[in-house]
Amino acid sequence: MLSMSYKSAFFNVVGAALILPVFFVISGSSVTLPESFYKVDGIAMPIGIIVLLLFRKKSSNLYELIFLTLIAMYITVGYLEGFQRHLLTIQFLYFFVVLYILKNLTYSELYEINRALVYSLMAFILMHFLSIIFFSDGNYFGGTTNLFGFIIYQSHLTYPLVLSFGIAILCQYNNLPWSIKYIFIFLAACIIFLTLRRVGLVIYLFTLILFVPWHGKLFLTLSIFLSALFVLDVSYLIDKADRLFSILDSGKLSRSKAWADALDVWNQPLAAIFGNGQNNYAHNFFLQQLATHGTLIGAILILFALYLIFSSIYTAANFYKKLFYILVVIVVDFNLNANLTQFYYAGVLALFLAGARREAYIGRKI
Fold first, then answer.
1. How far is CA 307 from CA 92, 311, 314, 327, in A?
2. 3 state SS of 358
3. Any bridge partners for residue 257, and if so which?
4. Cα separation of 97 and 106, whole Å?
5. CA-based angle 123:128:131, to the nearest 5?
């Protein structure tokens, strides 16, 4: 049995690890660091996956046992099938397991994780910003893909969104003065802008609108404008930022081909019932589940995800503010990506949701 000091230390380690984009790539019997910021040969595991060690077995009722049995059977069938179905199902379920774990912690335990994440977030933002400024040889946009030479896997996929969720948690953390928070909110804004990810920028914009006081919004807007005007080469900035407005490809939305391919899979008779059991890279959370798992199982998984997400913020303080934020995430990110099945993204979103109804007890307050 761990002593209270060791348990407290471990909760702090878990909180700090959740926000860090540090991955290990498992391929066969080898474990390596990522060699690319967008692609790996194997399964990329963030260090935040240690949150699973906090799992506590509780007595289950009959319905829960039936549900778990069906899930186990589905994963087993997927494994015997020989495709990726079992791995994709496990990836999908990771979010629910982490949310379940965090919701069943005591107030003090959740507070320690929340606090550790905030300080870990601030430390990493500062280090990444310094890395971009001093170690990118002037290529600030390219500098977002690494930290002092170490590759940041998913730096242009989940990382900007996780930073947004982390900043939303930081804004609600009431044990730091806003003068300190503004520094890191500003630095995070610079990093997210330099990634040139449209979805990341939209989610971060709504993070600022919903969770930052009005005087902070004015200060941050002015700071970002002056920095862009006097620190960066404006012509270079405009040339690179042109990507943000290039949403069409040959007259169609840039994601339309991925959506059409997923729809083609889903429209096949067998796939419509059972799915094709593969990662279809649909760039759409809903189409991804329907094409992979079929109409029935896919719809159940989607509805289950939406139910848990919305029920987590129901009756929370500032309910409508959090509801609107989650709606933006679903409408924008869920329709343009399938990030909920990414371990790094899922872990931090789960913490945001787990603390939404207990923020008065874990150091959060807007």
1. 15, 6, 10, 13
2. coil
3. none
4. 17
5. 130
In this structure, are residues 362 and 355 in contact, taking their beta carbons and an 8 Å threshold? yes
Taken as a whole, the chain contains a residue count of: 366
pLDDT in tens, the chain (366 residues): 456 678 889 999 999 999 999 999 998 778 999 999 988 888 899 999 999 999 887 766 777 778 778 888 988 888 888 778 888 999 999 999 999 999 999 889 999 999 999 999 999 999 999 999 999 888 888 999 999 999 999 999 999 999 999 999 999 888 899 999 999 999 999 999 889 899 999 999 999 999 999 888 888 888 877 776 666 666 666 666 666 666 655 556 678 889 999 999 999 988 899 999 999 999 999 999 999 999 999 999 999 999 999 988 887 667 888 999 999 999 999 999 999 999 999 999 999 999 876 665 565 654
- In angstroms and rounded to an integer, the radius of gyration of the C-alpha atoms of the chain is 21
φ and ψ at residue 39, rounded to 5 degrees:
-145, 140
3-state secondary structure of 335: helix
Among candidate residues 201, 208, 199, the one with its CA nearest the CA of residue 171: 208
Q: What residues have CB less than 8 Å from 14, skipping those under 6 apart?
A: 48, 50, 51, 53, 54, 113, 116
Q: What is the pTM of this model?
A: 0.91
Task: List, edge to edge, every strand of the sheet that includes 43-46.
Answer: 30-32, 23-27, 43-46
Cα distance between residue 276 and residue 284, in whole Å: 16
Retrieve residue 203's tokens.
Answer: 């989610």
**HEC profile for 128-159?**
HHHHHHHHCCCCCCHHHHEECCEECCCCCCCH
Give every CB contact of residue 236 below 8 A, 6+ residues apart in sequence. Answer: none
Please tell me whether residue 61 adopts helix, strand or coil conformation: coil
- CB distance 333 to 161 below 8 Å: yes
Write down the residue that tokens 């079929």 correspond to: 294
User: Which residue, chain included where needed, has tokens 């893909």?
Assistant: 145
Q: How far apart are CA 229 and CA 240, in angstroms?
A: 15
Measure Cα distances from 228 to 153, 157, 232 in Å.
26, 23, 5
Q: What is the DSSP string of 11-36?
A: HHHHHHHHH---EEEEETTEEE--SS
